[in-house]
Amino acid sequence: MKMSRRASIATIATAVAGGLAVDAFSFETDEAAPATKPRLRIGTLEELKKRRAISFAYPDASSPALAVLLGNGDVVAYSLICTHMGCQVAYGHETQSFSCPCHGSVFDAARSGEVERGPAPRSLPEIELQSSHDGELYAVALSSPIFGHTESIDENQALYGTGDKR
Ligand code: FES
């Protein structure tokens, strides 16, 4: 069964927070994923639980992104490219927000990357995550285009078709 981005993340988070066996997850499995849907392995649930964040690049090697474990146990992931003019934002675990060093925009990690303070015109692109039964985490989609990327979301994903597709 394909689940929405938030439902899938919530399911992962519940298991991470509760230390449940990965097999208990009900989200989309490797076997159920469409063969043509590109995705990128970003790490494991165990790593995220220990480090509270995993850096990766998505949808291409020049697009930094971060998966974070929020205080309430939710797991979320975002592009780190500011939607104002493309500077790289930094994450603060204490505030659970992303701050841009260029013009001061702040994005709320617990609320879909919404703009807390401008001048950024829109939310940070959220990255949909999936997990396999063996606890591997994958980035599979973007909620919106990344600043400065002229390709469509589907084209961006296609660019990452060479990633780990296990
Ligand atoms: S580039 Fe981030 S606030 Fe301007």
Properties at a glance:
3 helices; binds FE2/S2 (inorganic) cluster; 166 residues; alpha+beta; three-stranded antiparallel β-sheet; Rieske Iron-sulfur Protein; single chain; globular; disordered C terminus; four-stranded antiparallel β-sheet
Kindly describe this structure:
The protein is α+β, with helices and mostly antiparallel strands. The chain has a domain at 5-78 and 126-159: Rieske [2Fe-2S] iron-sulphur domain (Rieske Iron-sulfur Protein). Helices cover 17% and strands 28% of the residues. It has helices spanning 5-18, 45-51, 153-159; strands at 40-44, 53-57, 64-69, 75-79, 90-92, 97-99, 106-108, 114-117, 127-131, 136-142. A four-stranded antiparallel β-sheet has the order 5-6-7-8, with no helix packed on it. Strands 1-10-9 form a three-stranded antiparallel β-sheet. Strand 3 and strand 4 (75-79) form a beta hairpin. It is globular, with a radius of gyration of 15 Å. It starts with a helix and ends in a 7-residue tail after the last helix. Bound molecules: FE2/S2 (inorganic) cluster.
Q: How much helicity do the residues have?
A: 10-25%
Number of strands: 10
| Spatial extent as radius of gyration | 15 Å
| Helix vs. strand class | alpha+beta
CATH architecture label of the domain at 5-78 and 126-159: 3-layer Sandwich
Q: What ligands are attached or bound here?
A: FE2/S2 (inorganic) cluster
